[in-house]
């Protein structure tokens, strides 16, 4: 099904300037996600980088703090998606889950550390996550038999940390 250039422009505008996710922008315009994704790739190949424009629009609209918050929100969305995938896959061994969680915590820690200079309110959360990361390593090295229990407790505890620290 062919769509008019106006529809394509509307998807781009919703994604870039309204900061909707590409899936939501496509849905609002009545196009498939694959079509919107193709349009975005074709635009990038033609030199129109929707993601760079989106970042520039955020920066222009709210300063560096808005960009840092947007990056942190984006990472947190990916973090939650990964946590959901880990929890929904019972075939992953507990020791492997702990290693994956430690890696995820390390990525989180690095993201938060980068935003700390711009967003001081993330400092407490970064410290809390570093403690959790260290605990995961400690359990993996010294008490591997408790890895399954740690994995079971970690997700609700992580949600508690986010509520408490931001």
Category from helices, strands and their pairing:
mainly alpha
Principal-axis shape:
elongated
Distance between the termini: 45 Å
β-strand percent reads under 5%
Taken in chain order, the helices and strands follow as HHHHHHH
Biggest sheet descriptor: none
In total, the number of domains comes to 2
Helical run tally: 7
User: How many individual β-strands?
Assistant: 0
User: Helix proportion of residues, in percent?
Assistant: over 70%
Radius of gyration: 20 Å
Low-confidence stretches: none
What do these coordinates show?
The protein has 7 helices and no strands. The protein has 166 residues and is mainly alpha-helical. The chain folds into 2 domains: 44 residues; 103 residues. The protein starts with a helix and ends with a helix.
What labels describe this entry?
mainly alpha, 7 helices, 81% helix, 166 residues, elongated, 0% strand
Short recap of the structure:
The protein is an all-alpha fold. The protein has helices spanning 5-16, 22-29, 33-45, 50-88, 94-116, 123-142, 147-165.
